[in-house]
Predict the structure.
Amino acid sequence: MTSEMTWTRLCLGLAICLSTSGALPAAAQSDAERLDRLERAVESLQKRNTELEQEVRSLKLKTASAPAKDRSTPSSVADNKEDLPPPKEAGKKPVFAIAAASEFKLTLGGFVQSQVEAGDVFAFEGRFGEGTGEVKDRFRLRRARISVSGDYTEHFDFKAEGEFAQSDTALTVRDAQGRTLASNATRTGFGATDIFINWHTFLELNIKIGQYKAPFGLEQLTPDTKLFTTERSLVTTALTPERQIGVQIWGKPLANLWPEQKDLLIYYAGIFNGTGRNISANDNNEFMYVGRLEMQALRSKILNQETAMKVGMQGLSSRDETGTTISNVLSENSDGSLSSFSLPSRGTREGYGFDLSLRFGPFDFVAEYLRQRISPRGPGALFDRFTAGGYYLQGSYFLIPKKLQLVSKWESFDPGQAPNDDIDSITAGLNYYLKGDDIKLLANYIHTWSDFRESNSAFGKSEFDEVIVRLQLMF
């Protein structure tokens, strides 16, 4: 029954009661007076009925517009069984992790890169071996790393990262008599990559101690998970010192002088053993000295596209003893292929390089040139001085923004130990980002040719092809 019907009946009932009331004798009341009183009573009741109906409608509107109770946020008092948390399983305790020391931030992470390699596997690194020396088609766990990093309120940060995947190459340090001082050749499982402590109280001056990448080579310093191609260029692999044990200062000198342009200039300067990663022994009382300078030459918006350009330069100097392995792919064999280079006698390394990176909206371009001179020193030299160098040019374009990327790279490397011995490669690639760099698929086709082999056909074919497909997952 609606409120309107209820109040209408009430009005009629009251009107009847008033008409039959005994307040005045019936004989003394005229018909006109009774009708007048009845009309006034009905009008008053109808007015009140209208006001009550308006109040009812207002209450209904408020009730309909009120938000439903948010059950994702627990209330202070559980007034419904649905608000109560689910009962815990019998005997199951909650899982939690805490920092062992006084860190205010602790991060556990890592990544896995698994790939298939087919064709002339790693020929772009000068591996031209045939028969027993040939690298066969294979599935490969390229990298599998886990890391722990953290920050302290006392302005220290740290990282400890290790590698599960096996390596194709090894580094060895020997003395003048050929005796092995240290080696990582026996590593078949877990091994350290980055282990360092960094003091960062001042943006202008950080101090970093431990094992990490020496600041030489843009492509080498680019994290493995951020590369646009599956593998680094041959010139990078051959001439950069990669991870070393030592100390480094670095910073942004304009951080406080010009806060809006704090990234305009970044410097790095380090002193290292120079014997490679996971080798604590130094080959002598000399050290490797490495420095790098980066400048943000442009950062703006051009034609409604985010635009940035950065240039870098670096230098390296090291005095090494007999038997020190200075590169995994630098020694030139008689057939034009490359292998690891261990100094047959005492020597020095002096290197430098320049690089440029440009981003314009969906387009990226990177160019880098590296050069290194290896010279004998002291009496009893068993090798001649030579200079190795090379470059690469890499371009990429997002066909679908942040999803599908086209990549191409041209690279050239001159080992400098024989006439006409350049090794050149061209790479064509396609990258699909399922979830940014966290989950991405890379596919590369690499065509390589050797000038030395082309001039000396007796050593076999001079052109090589390889396909690498990689799946990367970060956690």
